[in-house]
Amino acid sequence: MELTLTLLLVLFAVAMLAGWVDTLAGGGGLLTLPALLLTGVPPVTALATNKSQAVIGTLTATATLFAKGHLRERKLILPVATAALGAALGTWLIQRVDTSWLSWVIPVLLLGVALYVWLTPHMGKSDSHPRLSEKQWACTCAPTVGFYDGAFGPGTGTFFAAAGVAFRGQTLLTATIRAKLFNLTTNVVSVALFAAAGKVIWTIAATMMAGQVIGAFIGSHTMLAGGTRLIRPLVITMCVLMSVSQIAQHLNLLNLS
């Protein structure tokens, strides 16, 4: 694979769009991961490089939201810690066991989230009675989604947000804001382990990081400036697209074999 200026500019643009989408609804990896694979980057290296560039996007979004007065509650410490543990276990395990079954399970989960959001048009518009306490959520949902991000990744922000609405009774805006912090945590942990194994192409990662910064910055301000109406349709769209993408990739692998 030859790194040309044109190729790097294309990856920069893709990362910028992905940063905007990911901040609002999650699923930015649907754009960046295929782009990396199309350049000829090996799958594991593409996954590691994609995680590396995604870190800066979630960092930018989280920092922007923090500066605006969000994500400052002490109660976030526990779910951040458990999400980190889940991500570490997932990243460790993905390099040692067969996880091909995820090729079918994840699309089903994504379509389930899309259907749930579509059938509940008023979902997350106001706070509702929580089904789990903060501690229960931190000990169940946070490490589960964190494990998924470490082992696989696409749609992690969406799953964190959906779990916040469904089990904590949060508004979609609140759940999406919190999802940025949790996703940042799981990304950092996963990248650290991938980087230690030498799986990241840092030239590409740095280029895409620059695009992520711009996209995530715009996305954060879009969200806070009345862009919450975009979250629901984007969540549905990205869930469906990610599901179709995973199914298509799996079928393609079956045909090749």
TrEMBL record:
<comment type="similarity">
    <text>Belongs to the 4-toluene sulfonate uptake permease (TSUP) (TC 2.A.102) family.</text>
</comment>
<keyword id="KW-0812">Transmembrane</keyword>
<keyword id="KW-1133">Transmembrane helix</keyword>
<keyword id="KW-1003">Cell membrane</keyword>
<keyword id="KW-0813">Transport</keyword>
<dbReference type="InterPro" id="IPR052017">
    <property type="entry name" value="TSUP"/>
</dbReference>
<dbReference type="Pfam" id="PF01925">
    <property type="entry name" value="TauE"/>
</dbReference>
<dbReference type="InterPro" id="IPR002781">
    <property type="entry name" value="TM_pro_TauE-like"/>
</dbReference>
<protein>
    <recommendedName>
        <fullName>Probable membrane transporter protein</fullName>
    </recommendedName>
</protein>
<keyword id="KW-0472">Membrane</keyword>
<feature type="transmembrane region" description="Helical">
    <location>
        <begin position="101"/>
        <end position="119"/>
    </location>
</feature>
<dbReference type="GO" id="GO:0005886">
    <property type="term" value="C:plasma membrane"/>
</dbReference>
<feature type="transmembrane region" description="Helical">
    <location>
        <begin position="76"/>
        <end position="95"/>
    </location>
</feature>
